[in-house]
């Protein structure tokens, strides 16, 4: 029975990470870049899947072997680095959570006609309910799985009816005619950047699924998470490609909604409402859980009042959104910012893999270290290219 429960936790961690990735920003980014790059966005997705998998495998394995949260590992690598990393992840998580709350509110607005602000408040209350529940860990796993499957099934439906040019997408996945540094940085950042890659790894820590003996299962969990997020990205891309290849223009105010509406009329628009609500609320749960997991080891009081602090984090995110609103530009920007955080986080983890005081007798496979170092270099290069593009635009 224990083995079965372990697998359940691993799948829950995979879905938590994937659901954290597949938020409103994920939907918006995919629609925007499909319209900009067309079928060539397939190449960006393929490249990002490889970068995502390498980054996630390294980070999950090192956290599992060290049996410590990322911030404690970072502090052992360079004194104070854990606090700096936590600050970056916490701020990135808060910014993302504002967008997540907004997305959930927008979903209820589409479904029931209530205001986006009212929808945001209702969604925040539902997310808080998951953390108030005594069996919060199990509830979070079950919720992440349910919402993850729901999003994938609905995206599959829209991808099917949009009649996309699949042959062209397959060719452009290896022979692109357009490329964008910003797209790669934003997509990788939106999938494994900032807090996202740590959401599943920290869930495994809480569930005590750690140690060298659990590495094969940790590998499966990490790759399953990337597989789920990548499947959703591909389905959304195919759906958006089917729409834009007809010459239709997406509404810049809500590009992701346009994909669903143009593919399937008012019914598609309602489906979008359900998808973005599921994306928003599951990402609220993942973002809040992981952002607070980055500070809870710093003081006993934070650990003692962990649940209450998570609830305050959600309430603050909701309050900021209700005051500010207009999240579309924020959702695109935060993906890129999280992409800039990734090389710092991954770089620190790669150094930790060679500190015996952190990982004891564990030997990190050389190919995984070299691949991880390659991802760090590529993300720094992409970040530099993106900054140059922004300065010249």
TrEMBL record:
Provide the membrane topology annotation.
Multi-pass membrane protein
Question: What InterPro entries does its record include?
Answer: NRAMP_fam
Its localization reads: Membrane
Which cellular component terms (GO) are annotated to the entry?
Answer: membrane
* Keyword annotations from UniProtKB, A to Z: Membrane, Transmembrane, Transmembrane helix
Instruction: Report the main location listed first in the record.
Output: membrane
Is this entry keyworded Chaperone? no
Spell out where the chain crosses the membrane.
37-60, 81-104, 110-133, 142-161, 181-201, 222-247, 267-289, 301-324, 330-354, 366-384
- Which protein, by its recorded name, is this? Divalent metal cation transporter
Organism for this UniProt entry: Pedobacter paludis
Q: Lineage in the entry?
A: Bacteria, Pseudomonadati, Bacteroidota, Sphingobacteriia, Sphingobacteriales
């Amino acid at each position: 029975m224990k083995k079965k429960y372990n697998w359940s936790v691993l799948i829950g961690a995979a879905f938590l990470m994937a659901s954290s990735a597949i938020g409103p920003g994920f939907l918006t980014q995919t629609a925007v870049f499909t319209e900009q790059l067309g079928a060539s966005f397939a190449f960006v997705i393929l490249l990002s899947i490889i970068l995502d998998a390498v980054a996630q495998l390294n980070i999950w394995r090192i956290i599992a072997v060290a049996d410590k949260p990322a911030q404690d590992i970072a502090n052992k690598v360079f004194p104070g680095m854990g606090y700096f990393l936590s600050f970056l992840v916490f701020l990135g998580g808060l910014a993302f959570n504002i967008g997540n709350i907004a997305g959930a509110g927008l979903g209820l607005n589409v479904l029931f006609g209530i205001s986006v602000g009212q929808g945001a408040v209702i969604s925040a209350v539902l997310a808080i309910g998951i953390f108030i529940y005594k069996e919060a860990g199990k509830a979070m796993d079950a919720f992440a799985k349910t919402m993850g499957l729901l999003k994938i099934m609905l995206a599959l439906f829209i991808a099917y009816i949009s009649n996309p040019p699949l042959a062209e997408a397959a060719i452009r996945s290896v022979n692109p005619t357009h490329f964008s540094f910003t797209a790669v940085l934003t997509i990788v950042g939106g999938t494994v950047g900032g807090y996202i890659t740590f959401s599943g790894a920290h869930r495994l820590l809480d569930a005590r699924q750690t140690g060298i003996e659990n590495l094969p299962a940790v590998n499966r969990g990490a790759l399953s998470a990337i597989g789920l997020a990548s499947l959703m990205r591909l389905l959304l891309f195919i759906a958006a490609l089917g729409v834009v290849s007809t010459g239709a223009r997406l509404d810049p105010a809500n590009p992701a909604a346009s994909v669903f509406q143009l593919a399937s009329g008012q019914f598609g628009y309602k489906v979008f409402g359900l998808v973005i609500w599921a994306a928003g609320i599951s990402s609220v749960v993942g973002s809040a859980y992981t952002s607070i997991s980055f500070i809870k080891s710093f003081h006993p009081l934070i650990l003692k009042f962990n649940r209450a602090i998570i609830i305050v984090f959600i309430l603050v995110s909701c309050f900021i959104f209700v005051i500010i609103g207009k999240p579309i530009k924020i959702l695109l920007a935060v993906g890129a910012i999280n992409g800039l955080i990734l090389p710092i986080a991954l770089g620190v983890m790669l150094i930790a893999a060679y500190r015996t005081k952190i990982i004891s007798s564990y030997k990190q496979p050389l190919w995984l270290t070299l691949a991880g170092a390659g991802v760090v270099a590529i993300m720094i290069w992409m970040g530099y290219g993106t900054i140059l593009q922004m300065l010249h635009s």
